Amino acid sequence: MLQQPVALIANAQILDTRNFKISSGKTIEIIDGRVSKIRDSNSDDVTCENAIDAAGKIIMPGLIDSHVHVTAATASLGDLADWSPNYAAARSSTLMKDMLLRGFTTVRDVAGADWGIADAVEEGYFQGPRIYFGGKALSQTGGHGDMRGPGRTFVDSHPCCPTIGVICDGVTEVRKASREQLRTGAHHIKIMLSGGVASPTDRVDSIQFSDSEIQAIVEEAEAANRYVAGHAYTAKAVNRGLRAGVRSIEHGNLIDDESVELFKEHGAFLVPTLVTYVHLKKDGEAAGLSAESRKKVDLVLNAGLDALGLATRGGVKIAFGTDLLGDMQKHQSEEFTIRAQVQTNEQIIASATTIGAELLGAEADLGAVQVGGHADLLLLSGNPLEEIRVLAEPETYLSGVIKAGMQQK
């Protein structure tokens, strides 16, 4: 693991992710992994120990991907139940390092990562982004988190089994399951509000969990000062989740006008994940996605952009997410250019910085180059305000990644 401390960055052009302006000729001072001062540069700065001369580069905050699965090293999620947790962690370490070197210094894992993965990154055993984890997603029997085929009955509910979900039915069971995830330090609870693509026995247009079950989960999360993230595609599933207090909707490809109003009424977030459908269609079979799951992709593939446009025009808070599985995770940065079909560069940048930070409740730490915030910084050889491909093509435009004041290699 190659990391070098950075004390200051001189001659920086800083991208303001709140006002979308560039400030030139600035020096960013870093102490203990945080930005301690932002001031005008002088000629002595570049001679300081552990200094970076950023002349000609634009500095922006590290990116936030609000929907990842760092343990999903295969698209065949049911196979994870047969993996050793040590093997799953080893595979996830490679995926996380790649995310970090693409400029994603923070990610929200919405099923799979646990306290062990997060601690391993925090303590430096794995090189990767900061992880806001939810542990195992909650699913009803036969729901999107139930990866058993129709002839399989056994479920390994051990917390160290590297599956993405836990099956629970009824108010008593969902309360206990919520508390189990929260006691491990989960930052949120992920629930399945509708069917999905990767699960073998449910329909995409099904609705899952009863109203009372959803309300119980929300109540448990709020009691712990946490929130609920809900997987949902159809407007019916999305809207009932929003009414029950679910704070973020994952995917939302089939939302309607009522959904937009409910998002705004409840101050909730939408996290579209458009790139995953493109590559599930193109690469899903090679990545291990079953034939049954591949048939479901078309139901949501073409609707995603329309939903993103509807939510954008309606003023919904939209965070950046990708949801890629297995080897398809290398396409993470393509989400930027896909969204550019219906969003402005400013809107896309905000989704991966300030809005992501707000979703995480970390506005003072993440999402902007700011005094007191984490020194999670990107050095770019182009201006993403002018060309969003600067973020979509890190291999060309990303000159450096700094996380917690350490330059990543």
From TrEMBL:
Gene3D superfamilies assigned to the protein according to its UniProt record, in alphabetical order: Metal-dependent hydrolases, Urease, subunit C, domain 1
Protein's UniProt name: Imidazolonepropionase-like amidohydrolase
Domain Amidohydrolase-related: 58-403
